[in-house]
Structures are given as C-alpha cells and as structure tokens.
C-alpha cells in the first residue's frame, strides 16, 4: 500500500475533492492541516516549492493540486 | 451511474463544461433523449470555491462544493448520458456533418451540435514575475489559500467585490493587507469597503498600477506605479492576490464563432445560438450581461430546447 499524505486547509475545495477521491478508491491517507501545524506548513512549502494546497505526497512523489489522472496513475487506480 | 460504453459513437450533442449551465443542459438533454456527452474537468463551476451561496433558488444556503455535488448527482441520475470528468477539451473542429471534439487525453467525440458552457477564468495581470511566482506568493483564490499567508504582509490587486472579499478572507491570517487599485474608484460594495478601510491592518493605495512581482525562490515584493506622480514604488510582500475580474474561456472556438471585444461568444439571446450553426453557448462564456448561476442554468436550458428543435429539423 502506498503511503499517502495530504496537506490541506479547511477552506480548500480541491483538498476536499482529493480526499473524496481517496475515500472512493479506498486509499488510506494521512491529512495534515497546515493552518494549525506551522512546521508541516514549512515542510509542505519546502517539498513542493510553492504555497498552494492541496499538496499530496505519495511515497515521496509530490503532486500539487487535485490532478485526478496523475493520482490515478501514481496509485495504479483503474489500470 | 449509467453511461454508454465508450465506442466513439456519433453524438447529437457534446456539452463542454460542468458548471450550472453544463449540469442544467445535461439534465434537459437527457430528458429530451438527445444522445449527449458532457465533458468537464470537474462539476460546480466558479462558485465551487464559495463557502456559502445564498441565492441559488430553492436553497437558502449551500456551500459551493455541496452545490457541485448536487449538480453531479443530478446529471449522473440521468439515463444514457456519457459523462467524461477529469478531462479537458483541447480542440473543436468543424467537419462535414458537425464537429469533432478532442480532449487532452486524446479522446475523440464526433457530434452534430456543441454547447459551450466553459465559463470564465481569472484575469491575469500579465506583468513580469506573475507567472514565475504563481503559487510562490502570487495567488488567485483567497478562500482557498488565505491560511497559508499567516503572519505575512500581503496585497490584493483589484477593488471589485472579489477583491474586497479576498481582503475579508485574508484578515484573520495576514499581518497586513494592502489593497492596490488601478483607478480612483472602489467598484465593490461600499458597506464592505467602509468596514475594511477602518481596519488597522488594511492600507489602501489608489491610482496605482501594479507593474512587476519581485522575488527569488518565492515572491518578496511588488512594484507599482503611482499614476499621479508617475513614480515607481516598491512594496515588501509575502503574497499578492489578483482579483481583477474574469476572462471568458472561449479560446476553443475563437476561430469558429463571432466573439465580442471582451472575448465573449456573441449569441442570439432568444436561442443561445452562436454565429456558426451547430454551436451554442450559455453562461459566463456568452455575451450575457449578468453572470449568475441561475441565469447560466436557464440560458443553457434555452439552448438545449433550441438544439432539440435544430436536431429534429435535420432528421
């Protein structure tokens, strides 16, 4: 099983879409709210070299935004 | 969910877009038994980022994302409509019998009619540094990204309602918010502006043209020109939100149909037909004066009823 982490803010729509996508496909994930967790916010910016959410980390591969086809490929969904 | 097996049949109608117009059109097309495909990246349209929509008729209060779910559920409840999500249309070409619609994922849809309900997207400043620092300080959705600018000095460019709402979204997080407005008037709601103006975190700069975004790995500031004195000034900033209006997403058909000087598709407002037979448009991509969810849905329905007449007359 891939290790999936998602960095989010509570008001971010694409974060919710990404989480819905994980739920639908039975993917376990760890959610990190970067509003509350300042250190995680710095980690996220460092990893993704940008400040937008969501940032999704799948086994160390970084995805910015909700890019369904890219996530499907990384998680081998529908392959 | 029921969808047609994807074998590249000839469609009667391809709907491009999944906002209120796209969803309304799909429901009406399915009920008219028009063989339809709807192609959209996501459902919901521009309101998807809205925390609370209070004017969608029949619903006193709903979030943008919940409304998007309702749109998608309503479309997927229809029989025999092909729904293609997570896809972008890259090309629309005129053929002898109608049109070929191609997606970025290289899927091809042959169709007799096209309804363009692609909406609009954020207008950009088109200044040096804007593209380079997109996501690295330059942002276009305060509702989404405001919390990431905690304790930073940020600016909002544009003083329409979207700009003022961006300030409201940023105030709980940002250290300071500078409003940069090109003209000498505030176009947004005066009541909101009066409240914001008196907030000690807010600075307002009028008659100022933003000319460049500065930074190294991330943005560190912006330059603007004082239009009265002609003087160029610098601001130290950790973020800048661009809220200067919308551009219609009409690029796909710009060589096929007549656009007005704003880039909107010119339509016959009785039928929503464009200047090219076989292409219709509704919602924010069309030259409708009032850009509203309810109007977009209604205009798209008008288009589908007219498309139905058109398809029958060609049988």
Can you tell me about this structure?
Chain B: InterPro entries: FAD/NAD-bd_sf, FAD/NAD-binding_dom, Ferredoxin-NADP_redctase_2. Chain B: Keywords: Flavoprotein, Oxidoreductase. Chain B: This is Pyridine nucleotide-disulfide oxidoreductase. Chain B: It comes from Candidatus Harrisonbacteria bacterium CG10_big_fil_rev_8_21_14_0_10_42_17. The complex is a heterodimer of chains A (79) and B (315). With 79 residues, chain A is α+β, with helices and mostly antiparallel strands. Chain A has one domain (4-59): Glutaredoxin, CATH 3.40.30. Chain A is built from 3 helices and 4 strands, in the order βαβαββα. In chain A, strands 2-1-3-4 form a 4-stranded mixed sheet, sandwiched between helices. In chain A, 33% of the residues are buried. Chain B is α/β, with parallel strands linked by helices and 315 residues long. Chain B folds into 2 domains: 10-122 and 246-313, FAD/NAD(P)-binding domain (3-Layer(bba) Sandwich), CATH 3.50.50; 138-242, FAD/NAD(P)-binding domain (3-Layer(bba) Sandwich). Chain B has helices at 20-31, 64-76, 142-145, 161-170, 190-197, 293-313, and strands at 10-16, 36-40, 81-85, 89-94, 99-103, 108-116, 120-122, 138-139, 153-157, 176-180, 202-205, 208-215, 219-226, 232-236, 239-242, 246-248, 279-281. In chain B, strands 1, 2, 3, 4, 5, 6 and 17 form a 7-stranded mixed sheet that branches. In chain B, strands 8-15-9-10-11 form a 5-stranded parallel sheet, with helices on one face. In chain B, β1, α1 and β2 (36-40) form a beta-alpha-beta unit. In chain B, α1 (20-31) packs parallel to α2 (64-76) and α1 packs parallel to α6. The relative contact order of chain B is 0.17. The mean pLDDT of chain B is 94. The interface between A and B is medium-sized, with 21 and 27 residues.
């Amino acid at each position: 099983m891939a290790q999936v982490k998602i960095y989010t803010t509570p008001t971010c729509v694409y974060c919710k879409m990404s989480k819905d996508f994980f739920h639908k496909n039975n993917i376990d994930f760890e959610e990190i709210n970067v509003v509350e967790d300042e250190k995680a916010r710095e980690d996220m910016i460092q990893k993704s070299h940008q400040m937008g959410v969501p940032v999704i980390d799948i086994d160390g591969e970084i995805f910015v935004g909700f890019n369904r086809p890219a996530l499907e490929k990384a998680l081998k969904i529908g392959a | 969910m029921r969808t047609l097996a994807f074998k590249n049949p000839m469609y009667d109608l391809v709907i491009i877009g999944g906002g209120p117009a796209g969803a309304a059109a799909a429901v009406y097309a399915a009920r008219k038994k028009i063989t339809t495909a709807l192609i959209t990246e996501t459902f919901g349209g521009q309101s998807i980022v809205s925390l609370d929509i209070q004017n969608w008729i029949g619903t006193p209060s709903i979030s943008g994302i919940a409304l998007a779910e309702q749109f998608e559920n309503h479309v997927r409840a229809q029989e025999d409509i092909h729904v293609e999500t997570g896809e972008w249309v890259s090309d629309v070409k005129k053929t002898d019998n109608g049109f070929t619609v191609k997606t970025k994922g290289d899927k091809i849809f042959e169709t007799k009619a096209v309804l363009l309900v692609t909406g609009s997207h954020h207008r950009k400043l088109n200044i040096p540094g804007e593209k380079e620092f997109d996501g690295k300080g330059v942002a276009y959705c305060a509702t989404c990204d405001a919390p990431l600018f905690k304790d930073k000095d940020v600016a909002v460019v544009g003083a329409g309602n979207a700009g003022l709402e961006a300030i409201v979204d940023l105030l709980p997080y940002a250290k300071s918010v500078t409003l940069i407005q090109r003209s000498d008037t505030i176009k947004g709601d005066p009541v909101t502006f009066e409240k914001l103006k008196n907030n000690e975190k807010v600075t307002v700069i009028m008659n100022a043209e933003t000319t460049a975004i500065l930074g190294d790995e991330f943005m560190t500031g912006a330059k603007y020109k004082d239009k009265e004195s002609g003087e160029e000034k610098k601001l130290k900033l950790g973020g800048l939100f661009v809220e200067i209006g919308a551009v219609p997403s009409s690029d796909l058909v710009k060589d096929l149909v007549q656009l007005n000087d704003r880039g909107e598709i010119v339509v016959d407002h009785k039928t929503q037909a464009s200047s090219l037979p076989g292409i219709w448009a509704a919602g924010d991509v069309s030259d409708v004066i009032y850009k509203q969810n309810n109007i977009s849905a209604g205009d798209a329905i008008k288009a589908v009823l007219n498309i139905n007449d058109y398809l029958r007359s060609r049988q």
